[in-house]
Specification:
With 348 residues, the protein is an alpha/beta fold. It is 43% helix and 14% strand. The protein is built from 13 helices and twelve strands. The chain has helices at 3-6, 11-18, 22-29, 37-50, 57-63, 79-94, 109-121, 134-142, 167-180, 196-211, 226-237, 252-264, 298-313; strands at residues 68-74, 98-104, 127-130, 149-152, 162-165, 187-190, 219-221, 246-249, 274-276, 293-295, 324-326, 329-331. The strands form three sheets. It has a six-stranded parallel sheet, with helices on both faces. Helix 2 (11-18) packs across helix 3 and helix 11 packs across helix 12. The longest helix is centred in the first third of the chain and has 16 residues, at 79-94. The radius of gyration is 25 Å and the shape is elongated.
Length: 348
């Protein structure tokens, strides 16, 4: 008996025997509508004759259900995407589904297309994409997939069904807190330009200041890392005494860098400059001083994201209209406290 006869048949073997492409076999197995009936019948006949089975075995072929969901993610070294991925996996397991995850270095049209093909080959019934960048959402909107796709962490201004924390509201909470504490202006260190969450946080900060008739000061930008926060903090320290008394930082890691830079410059927090972060990472309450920040409910994002995907898979009307927004929570700690009014004559 040859080695080929000893091993179980593969999808490539089925494609060769049926005279179709590997992708066509994948589409037949995924019950994709864009397959001619005669081609579908031929592929299914070859599958039966060869005894081809996916890992989910014969039951999946008979029921078209593998009880497997796919997740596409990138930047999972960052707290937000990593926490979202864990929450999605936990929520899927609670619903009795396995999860197949594809982690990508970058989310582009090519990498996303390859990831969706890979997950289709694995027989997933639907996919959740952690797509925080505008470029990733635009690519997903153009791709056709044989299964439902839900996005998480993309904000509210996208056309794909999705779930995210209300970043705009979170920024409003942070900025209002500083204004209510007596600060006459609030500076902002934003995240990368292509990140939708960074854009929503910057928009919330700006809208809150404008609603209070406060002209937004200079916006600085970092890359989510403590190093970028440290460098921005060195620049911010130069504005102390010239109107800078409060900073809203777009994530806690950058806030950590800002706190160190201010401390090295002899600037006290919160006596001289109050600092608010975003995310409420586990370490934030142990910063020096403990950081006031905006907490995101990643568990709710995971549960709602999986629930929305299952509704789409099963053809049920959504319980909550999409996009679904999860409310954040302001957590007040020692890095902020009521600030005395700025002395007359000090420029803002």
């Amino acid at each position: 008996m040859s080695p080929a006869q000893l091993r179980p048949p593969t999808m490539a073997d089925v494609a060769r025997q049926a005279g179709v492409s590997h992708q066509t076999v994948s589409r037949v197995l995924g019950d994709h509508p864009n397959v001619r009936e005669e081609t579908r019948a031929r592929v299914l006949r070859v599958i039966e004759e060869m005894g081809y089975r996916r890992n989910s075995s014969a039951r999946a072929l008979a029921t078209r259900r593998t009880r497997t969901l796919g997740v596409v993610a990138s930047d999972t070294t960052l707290y937000g995407p990593a926490s979202t991925l864990f929450a999605l996996e936990e929520a899927a397991r609670a619903e009795g589904y396995l999860v197949s995850t594809v982690s990508l270095r970058e989310l582009t049209m090519a990498t996303l297309s390859e990831a969706l093909d890979h997950l289709s080959d694995g027989g997933v019934e639907g996919v959740v994409a952690i797509a925080p960048q505008r470029s990733a959402v635009d690519a997903l909107a153009e791709l056709r997939s044989p299964f439902p796709v839900v996005v998480v962490g993309s904000g509210q201004g996208v056309d794909i069904p999705g779930v995210s924390v209300d970043q705009h509201l979170g920024a409003c909470l942070a900025t209002r807190h500083l204004l209510a504490a007596g600060h006459r202006r609030v500076w902002h260190l934003a995240g990368p330009e292509d990140w939708l969450e960074a854009a929503d946080r910057a928009a919330g900060w700006r809208a809150t200041l404008e609603a209070a008739d406060v002209e937004p000061p200079l916006l600085l930008r970092g890359d989510w890392s403590p190093l970028s926060g440290y460098r921005a903090g060195q620049e911010l320290a130069g504005w102390v005494g010239r109107g800078l008394t409060a900073v809203f930082v777009a994530n806690d890691q950058m806030a950590l860098g800002v706190l160190r830079a201010l401390r090295e410059a002899g600037v006290r927090t919160p006596q001289d400059v109050a600092v608010v972060g975003f995310d409420d990472i586990p370490e934030s309450e142990f910063f020096a001083p403990p950081l006031t920040t905006v907490r995101q409910d990643f568990s709710a994002v995971g549960k709602q994201g999986i629930a929305l995907l299952l509704e789409m898979i099963e053809g049920r009307p959504p319980a909550t209209p999409s996009p679904i927004a999860i409310e954040p929570q302001l957590v007040v700690r020692a890095s902020t406290f009521p600030h005395a009014a700025q002395p007359e004559g000090v420029p803002l």
